[in-house]
Specification:
The chain is an alpha+beta fold. It contains five helices and ten strands. A six-stranded antiparallel β-sheet has the order 1-2-3-10-5-8. Strands 4-9-6-7 form a four-stranded antiparallel β-sheet, with no helix packed on it.
Length: about 190
């Protein structure tokens, strides 16, 4: 079974599981996530490979991390994720990408990502639930971080934190690749 098939089946199983845990019908989850009921049915039947944006919306609506939605290994309290098993969820033809390095429920979703943005590229993120916080640390190049239409420059070695319940964009306006590590903390669903 390929990695993609394994992730698709894991996503199907975990969306069904967490929807049942939360007591959400398909219609309730669709409304909370802003995703069509038909898309949720396809996901739960492992018939589609949704975009990272869709997976994030579903995780946010369920109050769980992307890691939990994609997790196909449950076990010990310490989980080591080998470098070759970090999940690449977004990429461009120019070479930009993000990878989900690790995550946990603590008590809400907590995720760690690494990003590479090639010169001239950017990635838009929709607003997350109120109380979501993102931390970024730039390890190479310069990040142009736009939060709620306000632009901020984050140079190599600098870090930034912000409330992520508004639209935000990660951009690279420089001439060299930009690399960063990002942590995302989402409040638990009550």
């Amino acid at each position: 079974m390929s990695d993609l098939e394994l992730l698709t089946q894991s996503l199907a199983r975990n969306v069904k599981h967490w929807r049942a845990v939360r007591g959400f019908t398909l219609d309730v989850l669709a409304a909370r996530a802003g995703v069509s009921r038909g898309m949720l049915i396809q996901i739960e039947q492992a018939r589609t490979n949704p975009s990272i944006g869709t997976v994030v919306k579903i995780g946010d609506a369920l109050g769980i991390s992307v890691t939990t939605l994609l997790d196909y290994e449950r076990g010990a309290k310490v989980r080591i994720v080998p470098a070759d098993q970090a999940v690449r969820l977004w990429h461009t033809d120019a070479g930009s990408y993000n990878r989900l390095l690790a995550g946990r429920e603590a008590p809400g979703p907590l995720e760690m990502w690494d990003w590479l943005l090639m010169p001239g590229e950017s990635s838009l993120s929709e607003p997350h639930p109120v109380g979501t916080v993102e931390l970024v640390h730039v390890t190479a190049g310069e990040l142009t971080l736009t939060v709620d239409s306000e632009e901020h420059r984050v140079p190599t070695g600098a870090s930034a934190s912000f409330e992520a319940n508004v639209p935000h964009v990660y951009g690279n306006r420089g001439e060299v690749p930009m690399e960063m590590v990002m942590a995302v903390s989402v409040p638990p669903v009550h």
